[in-house]
Amino acid sequence: MNLHEIWMQQALKEAEKAYHEKEVPVGAVVVCEDRVIGKGYNQTETLQDPTAHAEMIAISAAANTCKSWRLDNCILYVTLEPCAMCAGAIVLARIDTLVFGSFDPKAGACSSLRNIVQDHRLNHVVNVVPGILEDQTSLMLKTFFQNLRNTKRKQKINFN
User: What 8-state DSSP symbol labels residue 110?
Assistant: First the structure.
């Protein structure tokens, strides 16, 4: 297992927390100098906050740890390709490298639909390493959405 896979395992542990709370299972960790300085998992339903994505929570935690909004020399590991909001935050935080697991063809803004983090017109460009532990991250997401669909189907069945 390489270093990116080891850190992605930590992001997967965060995603499991979201899964168990019936949140879309996305987890993130910010690593600097070989230690986790921020971590988070999706909490949009729990907090009723559309900005409570795993990346946003992990970036905020890292900024608090560093006592700086500039996260130079940091790597963000996230189990799903970030959306436009999170990609913007990654650029603004000056994160050096983004490592993600699964591609997001519906909302991904780091290669799938657009590539905000590598737009040279912005004030910062991020290195991107996609597809790390993609099989595991994809399986967790697929399982979550299958279970969600099955639950909704069961609720629609009326036996009376």
Answer: B
